[in-house]
Amino acid sequence: MIRLILILFLFTFQCSQLSREDQFREDCDDTRNRSYLYMLPILERHTTSGGTELNTTVWIGNTELAYKKCISESKKNRYYLRSN
Asked: Which superkingdom, per the lineage (predicted)?
């Protein structure tokens, strides 16, 4: 009886992780957080033209556009199965 319950639990756990959407969404969030954490301080300190506000504004805009594209890709992968 205990083996049956354990097998059913493991099977249910594996089936709940079949979608790649969550995996993609975590990657999107990690990339976005790293971008804000590491690149913005670098752009504020080191610029070639001296316009730090413009550089950071452009970087934030590009980061948000890439994030939105990444989220839409994760929604497309909702029904695809994981390969691992």
From this structure: Bacteria
* Nearest alpha carbon to residue 74 among 30, 39, 12, 14: 30
Torsion of CA 62, 64, 69, 75, to 10 degrees: 170
Judge whether 55 and 39 are in contact, CB under 8 Å.
Answer: no
Residue 66 has pLDDT above 70, yes or no: yes
- The range of the structural domain enclosing residue 66 comes to 19-79
In a domain, 39, yes or no: yes
Assessment of whether the complete model's pTM goes beyond 0.85? no
The HSE-up count of residue 28 (CA atoms within 13 Å, CB side) is: 18
What pLDDT, on the 0 to 100 scale, is given for residue 47?
64
Question: In sequence order, what are the beta bridge partners of 19?
Answer: 81
